[in-house]
Amino acid sequence: MSRKLPPLIAVRAFEAAGRHVSFTKAATELSVTHGAVSRQVAQLERWLGTPLFRRSASQLLLTEAGRDYLAVATAVLDRLAVASRGLVDQAAPTALTINAPPTFTMRWLIARISAFQRKRPDVEIRLTTSIAPVNFQEHRYDIAIRGAHEPIQGCVSFPFMTEVIVPLCHCDLLEGGRLRGPEDLAGHTLIHYVTEPYSWEQWLAQAGIPDVKPVGELKFEHMYLALQAAAEGLGLVLAPLSLAIDDIIAGRLCAPLGPCAAQFRKYFACASHMSPVIESSYEWLSREGHDTEQSMAAWAASVGWPLGVP
């Protein structure tokens, strides 16, 4: 049976005009002129044989027939958009670009990509690194990962892991009782980096020893350089426990002075549309984040730390 359908372009113009009750706003939404919307609506009215709007010099109103037709047109176009989006997602190249801070990418994310690939072997992961504010309009990535104290504005964002800041060093620095408590930092070098979320000045104040002077200081641009310096035994660095927990458990680093009071969270962020691939990536990051939190909590409990992660 053949279908007698109205012109789809005319229906789309009417639906936008009906939602806004304005030809001007509909024209802006559809990126056409006011006159184009008016002509399309008039064409649809002729096709239907009934007016859909009451027009006057100062007002545009839907007729009763127009209100009924708008409800149907909106529902049909919404269903068509959803179905089309699903097909586009299936047909589109299955590449997923993730943008994350460099040290987090090197020390946490890369080691966990294989878990995602086992679940979604059809998806190609592409990694880029940045600490700049998230901007999906200017940058070509599908997902951004950032540390923050609250949800990231201007996009969809969800926390997937709690970050706890701790002083870290090579285990050799503990030999001979040289680092029993915070006051012993006077005999060590403190390592800094530009993007540190919590400074040694803050940590010393929290520990009640703001006047302690270290024997030296090292400053780096990136966290991964500062962590490498600590791993080489050059001093102590303040860094997220999540990025060091594997090394601590393996005995390559130690955290002799307990956690800081400061905490923040790692957020997953994407633009307004969450495709099936992006949803899969969030599930993966949430699972890996939870596993890391469990590892941190188990280790902290073994040394008597009140870590305070979920």
Automatic annotation (TrEMBL):
Family membership noted in the UniProt record? Belongs to the LysR transcriptional regulatory family.
Domain HTH lysR-type: start-end pairs = 6-63
Q: Which Pfam families match?
A: HTH_1, LysR_substrate
Q: Which PANTHER family match?
A: HTH-TYPE TRANSCRIPTIONAL REGULATOR, HTH-TYPE TRANSCRIPTIONAL REGULATOR TRPI
UniProt keywords (A-Z) are:
DNA-binding, Transcription, Transcription regulation
Source organism of the structure: Paraburkholderia kirstenboschensis
Keyword Methyltransferase applies: no
Q: What name appears for this protein in its UniProt entry?
A: LysR substrate-binding domain-containing protein
Taxonomy, superkingdom: Bacteria
